[in-house]
Amino acid sequence: MFGARTHEVIDGSKKAMMQAPVPLDWWPEKLLARHPVREVFVSGRQLHPPLFSHIVTFPRLEIPLQGRYENQIEQEGKIETVSLRPGSALFVPPNCWNYPTWERKVEVMSLLFGKKQLGISIVHAKGPAMPQLVANKFAVPAPMSGPIPHIVEAMLELHSVKEPAAAFSELARALMQCVERLVHESPAPEAENRGQSFFERVCVYLQGNYQNDITRDSVAHLFAVSPNHLSRVFHRHGHMTFIDYLTHVRIARSKFLLCNYNFKLEDVAVRCGFRDAPYFCRVFKRLTRTTPVEYRAKMLQHSATGEAGNIRANGEGQPV
After folding, report:
1. 23 with 5: CB under 8 angstroms?
2. φ, ψ (nearest 5 deg) of residue 36
3. Highest-pLDDT range among 139-143, 144-148, 196-200, 246-250
4. How do residues 195-211 score in pLDDT, each as one tens digit?
5. 256 φ, ψ to 5°?
6. 208 phi/psi in degrees, rounded to 5
7. Domain boundaries along the sequence of the chain
8. How confident is the model at residue 141 (pLDDT cuts 50, 70, 90)?
9. How far apart are CA 144 and CA 165, in angstroms?
10. Does domain 190-320 have CATH number 3.40.50.1480?
């Protein structure tokens, strides 16, 4: 098994991380075997996501290993607070959201199914008396074939046709078995592929943290490389600068919010990592040659004919 382990300390919306070597025995096999998934909650996206809720463009499966994992999620057109215990899981389809309260002592494993990498985080929360979280992060290449993509697609199909959450349990258990096998069988990357693999890991991180106050220096520190090395990786493997890529992710997310919610521009800006609405509008117009207000009006007009359906469903121009 290969990957990188990241110790992440989270305090509110600000994050600071340190890297360490990956142990061979980090997979929580005994905890998962003790409490196989019997119940799955599924989050929606029709209502406005709360500020600082977790929302990304790829599907996620979150499983409490120990303790109680409380979340606000959208269910059947209402915002509900659900309490997950070992043996339950939360499935979050692309662009749907969840808002963890982190008010109780809990250990949670989160699986993020990116296009090119499977991200795995094990988060430890110690309750309100100690508000900081510690997360160990790992990554393995996402399989392009085999059962994992098909199981995830089946879960997304169930969600799209509004099947009851009870239908997800067997698929979730099968998915966990396949992920465990993948983790144990994944070989170390060849030397020539390490740069591409590192680039994709950083891209997945940026797509999951675009709303936070992150910079080239903070991301370089997180991944234990120099800022200049990080820039070279983006030039070589992404053919763009680090800030151009981050801005692209943020603008793509802003397009999704503009098309799907009636947020004010100030709310769109803060949810996409821009410091204020005027700056967001300047960047948006520079990259799209139109203002956010004009873009929203155009897309809403086109949505009646189905021309904007893909943007409304998935977000436009999502990289990696």
Report:
1. yes
2. -65, 150
3. 246-250
4. 888 898 898 889 888 98
5. -60, -45
6. -95, -10
7. 5-185, 190-320
8. confident
9. 27
10. no
Q: Which segments of the chain does DSSP mark as H helices, in order?
A: 29-34, 147-160, 169-185, 191-209, 216-222, 227-233, 242-260, 265-271, 277-288, 292-303, 309-314
196, 154 Cβ separation under 8 angstroms? no
What is the value of pTM for the model shown? Answer: 0.78
Strand partners, 112: 60, 119
Query: pLDDT of 32-61, one tens digit each?
Result: 999 999 999 999 998 888 888 888 889 999
Q: Are 136 and 113 in contact (CB under 8 A)?
A: no
- The structure tokens 């399989």 sit at 143
Check pLDDT > 90 for residue 108. yes
Neighbours of 16 (CB within 10 A): 13
Instruction: Find out whether 209 and 119 touch, Cβ atoms under 8 Å.
Output: no
Distances from the Cα of 165 to the Cα of 43, 85, 168, angstroms: 10, 16, 6
Altogether, the residues listed in the chain come to a count of: 320
- Mean pLDDT of the residues in the chain: 84
Sign of CA dihedral 302, 304, 305, 311: positive
* Identity of the residue numbered 229: H
Q: How many CA atoms lie within 13 A of 317 on its CB side?
A: 14
Are the CB atoms for 254 and 280 separated by under 8 Å? yes
